[in-house]
Amino acid sequence: MSKANRWRRSAMVAATSAAVLLLASACAGTASSTATGGAGSSSGSPAPSSTAPLVIGASVSLTGDFADSGKAVKAGYELWADEVNKKGGILGRQVQMKIVDDTSSPTQVVTNYQNLITQDKVDLVFGPFSSLLTIPASQVAKRYGYAFLEPAGGGPKVFAQKLDNLFFVQPAPVVKSGDVFADWVLSLPAADQPKTAAYAELDDPFSAPIAENIRARFEAAGIKTVYQQVYPAETRDLSPIMTKVAAANPDVLVSGTQSEDAYSQVKSLVQLKFSPKFMYMSNGANSPVEFPSKVGAANVNGIMSAADWYPGSPAPTSPAFVAAYTAKYGGSETDIDPSSAEAFSAGQLLEAVAAKTGKIDNATIISSLHQGSWPTLVGNLSWDAIGQPTGSFSLIQWINQKLVPVYPADVSKATPVYPKPNWGG
Amino acid sequence: MTGSVHALIQGVVLGILTGGVYALMASGQTLIFGIMKVVNLAQGALVILAAYLSYTLFTSFGLDPLLTIPLTTVIMFGLGVVIQLVFLRPLKREDSAQLSLLVTFAVALLLEGFMSVVWKTTYRSTNTDYANSSWTFWGIQFTVVRVVAFVLSLVALGLLFLLLNRTKFGRAVRATVQNPMSAELLGVESKRVAALGFGLGAATAAAAGSVYGLLYPFNSGSHYDLISELLSIVVLGGLGSVGGAVIAALIVSTSSAVVATVFSPTWSSFTFFVILILVLLVRPQGLFGTVERGAL
Amino acid sequence: MSIRSLVRGGVFVAALMALPLLGFEHWVLNLMIFTLMYAAMSSAWNLVGGFAGYPSLGHAAFFGLGAYFVGLWFQHHAVVTGYEPFLVLPIAGLIAAVVGFPIAWIAMRTRADVFAIVTITLLFVAQTLAFNLDSLTGGAQGLAMPTPPFELARFEWPFYYAMLWILLASMGITYLSMRSKVGLSLDAIRADEDKALGVGVHVQGVKVLSFSISVALVAMAGGVWAYYETFTYPQFAFDPIITIGMVLMCFLGGRGTLWGPVIGAFILVPGQQYLAYRLGGSQFYLIAYAGVFLLIMLLMPRGILPTIADRVRRRRAIAASSEGPPPADASPPTAGPGSNVPVPSGGAA
């Protein structure tokens, strides 16, 4: 072995051990400053003092695939913190949000919750955006005994974990969000009910299952399935599928959609000049600004979707939320993403727990939320043992180019319009 | 029975119309490879950038995306030249093939980061008033946008063909593609050709991008989907062969549209890969590629 | 030399072995798990991409294969002690090697750049399969792993040591192959494949063998990762970013070297994860990341180790020549195993 090579080797080892040492010393610093950390460090010990800020950590996607929704969640968390602090905080403690970016990566989300809990020792945590990231994150929270209020992870596999510390802050699990449409259709007089149905479903954890749930209800009620198709997320072009839908000529089209595929479906149907009598889209059609701008305002009428919060929502705290939101971020009520309202609701739950019990720690939050019903922006929430909310979404419909709640009766502001007007009508 | 025949014909029509757009995108990609032996992983990002440019010109100034193509073409050409000069030229010859893969990937990330800052990550699409209209002949549907896109791609490809075959620059490019050494001996300035050639490859992204924005919703991350399809097409056609890329684009997009309409859309992207693997089994150099082995 | 390098290696191994015992907090071990994972995978990638010069962009296909194998195995087998998933890792590695063998056989008949494209295609094929074979894989709904039952205080230990073992295996194989005929053959292939073939190197066999070993190691890392994450989805397990991570770390540290990928991983993973945690709020994260990436490629195209080594050698040569005749061993590295200065390949000329 040459001298040069020998040198090279020692350089490598030196550099590597330097890196290890650097890392180690950086860690040792924090390790010595805070004794043990880990389970119950925040919930077990009494609150340090009544004036210490209440630090709440959350990891959301600020870059990557989920970035836009992630930012909406962040806006909701921060808005809530501002509002609660104006009222003097929680039990006299100012709320401090510590929001970090998970770059839409499952590896980073685990690192972030590990860091939030064991390095920065935040008092409480909120969830990230998307079921995909919620599952690994909720496992970390569970390990350290943290309550996990999450506004954006309601896929079936989240609940299949059977975690008792998890609470999905929406009125119903995602798969059941379309049930309100089935409820309404099946409540119609038999003569008015659709006889045939087609289903076009995006293959992701939050879309296809919604349509499948409706299909099960419809088939049980004797509505015949004339076409059913699942399509992968990278399908940019839905005209082949819509061509087949049109050929099958169903009375009702149930679309399990996200956003851009919903726009693409509508555009294709308009091109095909096929307008079914009933049309339900799980997502995409419930966005007040994007949807009409993408498919043309003249084409929205009669399309139905489900929502928990929407402009003009009857929730008592909604007007104040809208006022605060527009004051902080500008824009108008229709610009507010429901994800922001859901994130805001997670904060409202903490306030409510503190007001009811006079305590704000993880054990109290977990045990309190498992009982009773809790009013929020997105409705009155209650959960079963594994964090599934037991309520229901509202059915909304585009009427005269406006999104209006139409069912169930307690939220309805207009009579549902059926059959759906033709395109452009 | 007639229903499935009908679906089949519809699938073929759809595939051919879409194939034109892919042919345009892939021709830029394969041209860059031909001239510089660089697999340009940033081509997809360039297409998306061009789509954003024409989207912005449309939404802010009301300019029709088809009319702004000359303008975006100039911009993309300039950007391509800059990318070549700043990031690719400094690479040492001996390693350039491997390194350029990574460098162009980094450029793609850079563009993606830039686009997600400027345009956020919501899906956009250029919604012209003709976006939803269609013609129907013999029960087969021809959407206006797709037909326009197809014609436009043909025009752009035609111009590219003229440029390569009827101009001095084109001759220099073709000479470089065939044999860089002898081209140099014949007085072709290979460095200049490389810069201009990269610019030309990027310029094809301009027309492709405006069409892409008309057809599909896109966001800053869309280039990942695009690049894997473009790569399959150029490898299938034979790296460096523009004609091969056009034919491969038509084969690939027709077969995946047919699979989507006749069988299931779930397997449509899979057809890309199956065709690619089958061809490589028989002809490792692609349909129209020349055998070139060993050192890069 | 071998004693000194043994000592160095020993210190490195001992330091990493002892790390969990030193009472670090959970977040440190968490960071180390991901660092070791990437160090192991980057080392494994180096066997094909660095030594043979075939830049695979599809290694994440095997990462996902390992992840899904572990997940699927425990759909049908119970986890009692929590250590069972680690025990099936060798099977995951074996399957990856068996799957990788014919793929490498086909893909490596082509040139290195076509190889890169075919392998990235393979990655998307694997992802599509994971999505579409939903009765087997759970499709887009994802696949649940067994929940690790380890006690909180030492929760990260098993994952940490599993990743460490894979890293050591990876480095061990690299070290052995550098010192054997295989290493020489790989060097020759990278420099000029046709000449290597001409002088009797069993080119195809050597390439395919190194690919199989490489992907087996990556699959094992994927299995550990999935178990640690407790859940996996096709788009996460078969993620091009995972491949890019391996490649980048290898290039950063110095490809074709034993320690290069390890150094690359020890710099990039903590840097990346920590920066995203601390500064992720800024939208310029991706731009900054790409910028650093480009700077490295342009300023140190061969990686940190070879660049530093070069500089030092040059300085020594100058010093030596001013003192007397240059030492024989400063000559170009036709010399021994571990010669990591790429031989300029003017082969096409």
Question: Could you walk me through the main structural features you see in this protein, from its secondary elements to its overall organization?
Answer:
- The complex is a heterotrimer of chains A (425), B (296) and C (349).
- Chain A has 425 residues and is of the alpha/beta class.
- Chain A folds into two domains: 54-175 and 337-381, Response regulator (Rossmann fold), CATH 3.40.50; 178-281 and 288-311 and 393-407, 3-Layer(aba) Sandwich (Rossmann fold).
- Chain A contains 13 helices and 14 strands.
- In chain A, helix 7 (208-220) links the parallel strand 6 (196-202) and strand 7.
- In chain A, helix 2 (67-86) packs parallel to helix 12 (338-357).
- Chain A is globular, with a radius of gyration of 24 Å.
- The relative contact order of chain A is 0.13.
- Chain B has one domain (2-231).
- Chain B contains eleven helices and two strands; from the N terminus they run H-H-H-H-E-E-H-H-H-H-H-H-H.
- In chain B, a hairpin with a 2-residue loop joins strand 1 and strand 2 (140-143).
- Chain B is globular and about 60 Å long.
- Mean pLDDT of chain B is 82; it is low at 292-296.
- By secondary structure, chain C is mostly helical.
- Chain C has a domain at 8-239.
- In chain C, 71% of the residues lie in helices and 1% in strands.
- Chain C has helices spanning 2-18, 26-51, 59-76, 84-87, 89-107, 112-132, 134-137, 157-178, 181-191, 193-198, 203-229, 234-237, 240-253, 260-279, 285-299, 304-323, and strands at 143-144, 231-232.
- In chain C, helix 8 (157-178) packs across helix 9 (181-191) and helix 8 (157-178) runs antiparallel to helix 11 (203-229).
- Chain C is globular and about 70 Å long.
- Residues 325-349 of chain C have low confidence and may be disordered.
- Chains A and B meet through strand 7, helix 8, helix 9 and helix 10 of A and helix 1 and helix 10 of B.
